[in-house]
Design goal:
Blueprint (H helix, E strand, L loop, with lengths): L11 E3 L2 E3 L6 E5 L6 E6 L3 H15 L5 H17 L1 H12 L3 H21 L6 E2 L8 E8 L2 E5 L7 H4 L2 H7 L2 E5 L6 H13 L6 E3 L4 H10 L3 E7 L2 H11 L5 E5 L4 E5 L5 H13 L9 E7 L3 H13 L19 H16 L3 E5 L14 E4 L16 E7 L2 H9 L3 E2 L1 E5 L3 H10 L4 E4 L14 E2 L2 E2 L4 H6 L2 E8 L1
Parallel strand pairs: 7-8, 7-10, 8-9, 10-11, 12-13, 12-18, 13-16, 15-16, 18-19
Antiparallel strand pairs: 1-2, 3-4, 5-6, 6-22, 11-21, 14-15, 17-20
Helix pairs in contact: 1-8, 2-4, 2-6, 2-7, 3-4, 3-7, 4-6, 10-11
């Protein structure tokens, strides 16, 4: 069982109180690297969720000033950095990623609190500059109200940090539902929040089965907005369930990112960037490259560059300082990756390189693998693999590369490597993705809006746009 000063209360948090410790229904959290039991947690349901919504709805109606909220955000930012080592340890234990990645995740998360603190002044009332129709006009950004934040398991702190500080800055009452696979990091954050003595009801935490909790968030009239990061399938369900209630949704859904390497690209730089992009979190990210599209003229050389790098990757327990690739989140994830590899090879792909996995490892590991000559019709072309697989598909022309990149229902992130400035402008304009990175594999940052096109969702996180997601503009006219 995990021990931590940030996990003294292994339960939910509603209206300023830890709740659920005596619940009869529970669920387990295990370490994917070892299978060890980390915690047994109460499975909260609909009644607790309704109580959390009522508390959040009461809290937002009497929120303090922008200056007070700014202070809260910076206090949380500072606390995250003080507790950086312990938070990272908890992330690695329950999610599996290498500790060095978890440390980066804490820094990244803290950045969102600092950024939204710096932007909160934008919510001050904004008078229009002149009399209109004989009256003075002022635009206010009111809180959206009580909001539900539903987060995934791959970045248990960072995905919440993209939502929570924006909602808090806007003045919303918050109900958070973390993934059942990785709730401990969120509980640890709530210990930090509890120590800061935010007013009761401002920040509520419910843990347990998604169905009853999600049903309350989708149907309760006090919940004005739901922000969700996860699969497109679940996103569709949220849209259907909330439609009769006309709720606002902010959805970051699935990705199927193309990684385009043109014939004039710096292949060494493209390979280095792909390694960092693809193998972070063992390939379990919505923005990591999923379809590697390489110009036929340089494909052999690029495959050679990648083979050397992939073969050298060190797989192991994330708590081991030498580990570069941790386990996948569970057995189902391993089975999906294996199915994708088998399907690709059945369609003609060739295995070029594969890292080794020590036989003594007992967790849900899959060896990082490089495939070449991925063919049309392979499952990897249309589905997120969510694992440590690089599969190269070759193309002949720029037009073909753009067509292949866009041939998906998803539109979250895309990557392009080329030395041609005019091509950068031309191709980035044609790529239907919310995030297009050129000659870099970098993903989102707190300072810029991030979100999807097409069936990768709608709404934005980060940037001033991410703050305004949680606001309702109201115009007040005074004669």
């Amino acid at each position: 069982m995990v021990q931590s000063h940030l996990l003294q209360n292994l339960c939910g948090y509603i209206d300023g109180q830890w709740v659920g410790a005596a619940a009869s229904k529970t669920f387990e959290v295990c370490n994917p690297a070892t299978g060890d039991l980390l915690a047994v947690l109460p499975n909260l349901g609909a009644p607790d969720t309704r109580a959390a919504v009522v508390a959040a709805d009461r809290a937002w109606r009497d929120f303090p000033s922008l200056e007070t909220r700014e202070g809260w955000l910076m206090a949380i930012h500072d606390a995250l950095l003080r507790e950086k080592q312990e938070l990272a340890r908890i992330i690695t234990l329950e999610q599996g990623k290498p500790l060095k990645e978890s440390l980066v995740e804490v820094d990244y998360s803290a950045g969102f609190f600092k950024f939204f603190a710096s932007q909160i002044h934008n919510l001050a009332p904004s008078p229009l500059g002149e009399k209109i129709r004989g009256a003075s006009w002022t635009v206010h950004h009111r809180p959206a109200g009580a909001v539900g934040l539903i987060t995934p398991w791959n970045f248990p702190l960072a995905m919440l940090a993209k939502k929570f500080p924006a909602a808090l800055a806007a003045g919303c009452g918050i109900v958070t539902k973390p993934a059942d696979l990785t709730p401990l990091t969120t509980i640890a954050l709530w210990h930090i929040l509890d120590g800061l003595k935010l007013p009761p009801g401002v920040a509520n935490l419910v843990i347990g089965d998604a169905a009853p909790i999600g049903d309350v968030l989708c149907t309760h009239p006090a919940v004005r907005l739901i922000s969700f990061t996860g699969s497109t399938e679940v996103g569709r369900t949220l849209i259907k369930t909330t439609a009769p209630h006309i709720k606002r949704l902010s959805l970051e859904l699935g990705g199927n990112a193309p990684y385009i390497v043109m014939d004039d690209a710096d292949l060494t730089a493209a390979a280095d960037a792909l390694m960092a992009n693809k193998f972070r979190c063992a390939g379990q990210t919505c923005v990591c490259a999923n379809r590697i599209l390489v110009h036929a003229a340089v494909a052999d050389r690029f495959a050679s560059e990648m083979a050397r790098r992939v073969s050298a990757l060190r797989v192991g327990n994330g708590m081991d300082a030498s580990t570069e690739i941790g386990p996948l989140i569970n057995r189902a994830a391993v089975e999906k990756v294996a199915r994708h590899v088998e399907d690709a090879m059945a369609c003609g792909a060739k295995r070029v390189a594969q890292a080794s996995v020590d036989a003594s490892l007992t967790g849900t590991f899959y060896p990082p693998t490089l495939l070449d000559h991925l063919a049309e019709g392979s499952a990897m072309q249309q589905e997120e693999t969510f694992g440590p697989i690089v599969a190269i598909r070759r193309f002949e022309t720029e037009a073909e590369a753009v067509a292949l990149a866009n041939s998906t229902i998803y539109g979250l992130a895309a990557y392009l490597f080329t030395a041609d400035v005019s091509r950068i402008e031309r191709m980035s304009r044609q790529l239907s993705f919310g995030h297009v990175a050129v000659n870099t594999g970098t993903g989102p940052t707190p300072e810029a809006p991030f979100g999807g096109m097409k069936q990768s969702g709608y709404g934005r996180e980060g940037g001033i746009e991410g703050l305004l997601e949680y606001c309702e503009p109201q115009t007040v006219v005074v004669a």
